[in-house]
Design a protein that fits this description.
5-stranded antiparallel beta sheet; 24 strands; 43% helix; 676 residues; alpha/beta; 5-stranded parallel beta sheet
Length: 676
Amino acid sequence: MKRPTLTLIAGSTQTKNVLYDQLQQLAGDYITVKAFAIDEMLPHQIEDRVILYSSETTQKEAASISNIAGDESIVGKRTIRHDYIDRLLTIPQGERVLMVNDDDPSTIDVIESLYQLRINHVTFVPFKRGQLYYDNIDVAVSPGETHLCPSYIPTIIDIGVRPFDMATIIKVMNYFQLDDSVSSKVSERYIRSMIVLHRKILVAEQDALRTTEHYHNVVNTVDDGILAVNKEKKITLFNHRLEALFQLHANDVIGLELSHVVDHELQEFILNGEEENKFVSMNGVDVVAFRQSIPEEETTVVTFKSVNQAFEIEKTAQREQQKKGFSAKYDFEDILGEHSLLLDCVRIAKKLAIAEHPVLINGETGVGKELFAHAMHRTSLRKNGPFIAINCSALTETLLESELFGYEEGTFTGAQRGGKKGLFELADNGTLFLDEIGDISATVQAHLLRVLQEKEIRRIGGRKITPINVRVIAATNKSLEQKMIEGTFRSDLFYRLNVLQLSIPPLRERLSDIQLLTNYFVTKSGTWMKVDPKVIEAFTNHQWPGNIRELKSMIDYALVVASGSTITMDDLPHQRLQSSKQQVPLPVSSIDAKDHYVILQIMKNRNDDGKSASRDFLSKESATFSHPLSPQQIRLRLNDLESKGYVIKGRGRAGSQITLEGEQYLAQLTSYEKSR
């Protein structure tokens, strides 16, 4: 028996394919379905017994472009794809949602269908062609026509092309006067798909309930009290710990306005307070309340932590900081020497350690300024707190600022997610050692002065003010008084840092400690080598511009090159060991001496400011010595000085730097110039 034929006419190819598949799945065994789409161009003549249109708009358009003759025309009723409904349930309560379809009647039809399905937790706004902007709408929903959605709307949800409802399917079956058993089977197939969907929704609901119950249990297990308040000032979360603190049941509190549960002072802190934490006493229990907001939900969350627990957390944080290396490693017993100048310095440092004022340590490079800072921290009242050291000359201005004061997330490209604590925050209740303080820029000086004055910091890019309790120990090998005269160091910052002062003597002023220090460095290396007395004599005659650091470096060199069991004069780097009795050889001509003196003096001044000296800079500055040198003359003299080990020339545009041997040579040239 020949099967009856049904002609389906839809507006778009996508709609045609979805509706054709539906008809084939439900009734393809009993009827033959032919399908056409208007956007694919209809045949000029359509003559079939039954014509099924996807919508009234489609019927009108088809009639205007094709000669259609059929015994029966049916405009199908469309419903929502039930397997896509869960996408709509994720939209937040009360949201305004733009409903987008290809014609106005269909748009209204979709909205009505959703409301009938009780999808009424949001307000649907119908899309109108030609309207460019819809106020206060962040979500658009469309049944397969997402290309029509305005591009500025961030969230677009496709709920799929709407299928025919069951009434339309039954109407088609009845028209063809098919056996009742056929209609029954078609109905069963439709209902079976609904059952599968229903089972899917039940599983999803059970998963959601389990997830909600899990989060509820987690919140109630936390040892902190947790309170959440929405934009209507009503309580939405009140965990078990908070029940104990307030002596109230969550079931009696959730849904109430905040004013009915807390006093006025705490209410002001939660709703309007500028601080992020507040000390509160609740029913005899001292707690600290921490307030945070969830802007996207317009919700405020407050956690209540007991003061005792906060102290324990602080102690744990301090222990973790010590594990990370935020702790002092040396005591005063680690400072070696028996010279009276050093012993006096140690005695004064022990007294300064007990005080809480800032300390400024003065001393040449290599004398052990950081060693004294470590020892002072470990003798102070802050010995259980963190000790953090930073070399200010080793970082650029921007990097030094971010290291000291921290930054908020998104402050600059590459900023750490969540922001970053600065060293002042990390050193809270401890000591921060700022080495080479004389090299910081004017901007950092201004920020540092504010921290010392106000005892609070604000991260870069942030608005929050954080109080800090940090003792600052600063160190410099430069004359800050001279830098104040030159206008490169703030006098107000100097007097803030220089409350307590400690001057560490250079090694050349305590040469009697050479023997002790040499023996210590040799023993510490793990070897059993002896030191020739002539080596000690040579060390005693040396001026040690690099101080103890230079001494250790020289001993390390000797330990590597020594071939026997004794360090001898042959094992020493003679180009670096120039004693005061063995004068650095001067140039053969007074002209060379003058040129070398001018170049090295300018270079040393430049290096002391933490910068290299280029040939152009040296040439320009030489005029200030009334001894102008051309860039060509500078180049020739630098080659000569480099060959003798007095300077290190930078490559390309990098400038040059004076070496320790060069500084000794400059001292000889200075004496030579004065004697002329």
